[in-house]
Design a protein that fits this description.
The protein is of the alpha/beta class. Helix content is 40%, strand content 24%. Strands 3, 4, 5, 6, 7, 8, 9, 10, 11 and 12 form a ten-stranded mixed beta sheet that branches. It has a two-stranded antiparallel ribbon with strand order 1-2.
Length: 297
């Protein structure tokens, strides 16, 4: 059933203002346009809501009975529209963000803290997973936005590069390389390394880039997550090659973060959204914030 809201609104205005002239001014309409709305509503209902004479307008018996319900319809609609306008103005609502775990060490917490200060009433739900899982979450509509490592671009996703994240060498002193300002990939040949699973986007990207330069590295240990690799480095088990964003100098006593050169390998971190899909006010506010952020890795 189609509800003639314009007609209901016009009827309520005439009833409350006591006439067509004042009601037309209230709704910013001509009297002719207002009259047409009332006539259209009455024709749709098959009932007379207003009794008109040349000198006055009165509610019919049916009109008096309908007025409380008509007021409720107008008030509910007005309140709902105002809530939506408020959401739009202030970016209010719920945000679902899919993100690779490596971003949760330093980059994402800072973004979320800044977002929470600007939008304290918003609720954030975080889905952490691999780059492929992040892409799938955004494609399926389970997440408004995604943060992932750039890979093969999907035709249904829009991606924006946020920053280039260089791979670095982590080790715990004392170590043969702990005093170096930078190290070459060739120096990794004699180092016990903790590798991250070959199914991770970063590992796939690293292996591909190194293969182009004829470089191979071998891991003595292999783990599934960057955080596990950092824990093992901190315990002195071995060194690790990880994205710079996963570790901040001073996070763990004695652990050094050293630049890797010849070649310098950088993964690109991207913001993903579904093509042709309008973002909610809360998601748009976060997207705007992250686009303006200055990333230090």
């Amino acid at each position: 059933m189609k509800v003639d809201f314009d007609g209901v609104q016009a009827f309520v205005a005439v009833a409350e203002m006591g006439g067509f002239s004042r009601a037309a001014r209230e709704l910013n309409l001509t009297q002719t346009a207002l009259t047409r709305r009332i006539q259209k509503l009455e024709a749709y209902l098959g009932l007379t809501l207003l009794n008109r004479t040349t000198r006055r307008v009165e509610l019919s018996a049916v009109g008096r009975d309908f007025l409380p319900q008509a007021r409720a319809i107008v008030q509910d609609m007005t309140s709902a529209v105002e809530r939506l306008k408020d959401m739009s103005r202030h970016g209010r609502g719920q945000l679902v963000l899919a993100c690779i775990p490596s971003m949760t060490s330093h980059v994402l917490p800072a973004l979320i803290q800044a977002y929470a200060q600007q939008h304290p009433d918003n609720r954030i739900r975080l889905l952490d997973g691999s780059s492929n899982e992040v892409c799938q979450a955004v494609l399926a509509g389970k997440a408004d936005l995604g943060i992932a490592v750039q890979g093969d671009q999907h035709p249904d996703l829009v991606e924006q590069v946020l920053f280039a994240d260089p791979l670095v060498f982590l080790c715990r002193a004392p170590h043969a390389l702990d005093q170096a300002e930078s190290v070459r990939w060739a120096d990794m040949r004699d180092t016990e390394l903790i590798g991250v699973s070959g199914f991770m986007a970063t590992r796939i990207f690293m292996d591909y880039q190194l293969a182009k330069h004829g470089i191979r590295v071998h891991s003595t240990y292999e783990v599934q997550h960057h955080a596990t690799a950092i824990n093992l480095v901190a315990a002195g088990v071995g060194g690790a090659i990880l994205p710079s964003s996963t570790f901040k100098e001073g996070d763990r006593p004695g652990v050094r973060k050293i630049a890797l050169t010849h070649p310098t390998v950088r993964r690109k971190v991207v913001l993903l959204r579904r093509k042709g899909q309008a973002l909610s006010p809360a998601a748009q506010a976060f997207a705007t914030q992250i686009e303006r952020a200055r990333f230090k890795v």
